[in-house]
Amino acid sequence: VQTCALPISESLTTVALRARLLDAQDRNEEAEKLIVQKTGTLLRQAKTDYQRDLMRTGVAMLYAMLDDIGNPDLLLRELESQSPRAYLKLSHALARHERFVDAIDLCEQLRKIDPSPNAAMIAASILGSYKVSEEESARVEKLFEESLEKFPDNARLLSVVGTYRITQGRHQEALPLLRKAVALEKRNAIALNNLA
Q1: Is 38 helix (H, G, I), strand (E, B) or coil?
Q2: How far apart are CA 165 and CA 148, in angstroms?
Q3: At a CB cut-off of 8 Å and minimum separation 6, what does 128 contact?
């Protein structure tokens, strides 16, 4: 993980390496404390919106990389930008820690501030990667429906939701979405693959 040449004393790479070393020495509490302290400092040192966005994305990637070390709540508190990349990384970091409610909450938060179908697509990637409860699945289905209503001609959204519905055995619901995706975007590989 790089800091993109930000003027900060310790890079995220250094933090990640130090946390891994502490974890290998069974000093998990120290590793978590280090991550919370250093990443918070790095986020506060970013001067511009662009730098803050890069740092939030980097911190989210750090949590995703470290798996069982660290507390992603720091980034949840710090996450005020509208960067879908940061939301994607953090949502998956939360899901990897089996915090599916928080991951879906984050998608719903993104939907409120991002005028695109990103929230639904991030939620679809969580459903495709992790086994979630029926309650979380229902919340994501609501995101899908709202996004499909708002973005009926977004080929990527149509193909992602169609693919998810195929994995659920809901072929009759999936086929019209996938066909429309191909009609809008002739070379949509996801939709074409699922229609084959």
Answers
A1: helix
A2: 13
A3: 163, 164, 167
Written as one letter, the residue type at 154 is N
Average pLDDT over residues 108-127: 86
Between CA 163 and CA 172, with CA 168 as vertex, the angle to 5 degrees is 70
pLDDT in tens, 61-101: 666 666 555 555 555 555 544 456 667 777 877 787 787 88
Please tell me whether residue 16 adopts helix, strand or coil conformation: helix
pLDDT for 7 equals 40
Predicted model pTM: 0.62
146 phi and psi angles, rounded to 5 deg: -65, -40
Distance CA 35, CA 89 (A): 16
| Cα–Cα distance, 159 to 115 (Å, whole number) | 19
Query: How big is the CA angle at 73 (ends 69 and 74), to the nearest 5 degrees?
Result: 90
